Amino acid sequence: MKKLFAILLFLITTHIQAFDILALGSSNINCHNANQAFTKTLNELLIEEKISASVINAGLDGDKPQFMLSRLKSNLSNNKNIKLVIFEPGPNETNISWSLEKSKEILQFLSEKNIPSIYVSNRSIQSPEDARVFSESNGAYFYGNYTKGMTRTREFCQLDGQGCGHLSENGCQIWAKQMLPLVKRVVTEKGIE
Question: Distance between CA 102 and CA 90 in Å, rounded?
């Protein structure tokens, strides 16, 4: 009976203290054809680290930043428990200045709402240095390119005619493992509970 009570107490307090992380973006966040491996793996890693958080996959194949802001607002209004946003604008908007303008709106909106964000860049939109400056000037933590540290081989990429346009399941899992230290840093620095 004591064991059952302890388990119930743990579940109740874990649920009360839990927060959500919204992973907003395109097919990269969704891990197109790779079983949502980024968000699934990040969720598993958070459990291992005893961080009471749940990652919500808000990646949509083919999406563009101009449509992501309304999806972000909808997610935030429907879930007051979102305390951190991982934002990956993707390469789908071919007008780079438009992509950057809309990405800036998203990061500034999050900053105004006091919701910390992690910006994930794409080499087809920005150089790593430009992306770092862009991220920091808009109040976001900078992760880097979603493919950082991975070679363009079948081990990490689907090689689907776009170079490494989409990560393999293994690549998405590695991305989540590489993302974990930054998520932990943001949670600690911002006092997220």
Answer: 12
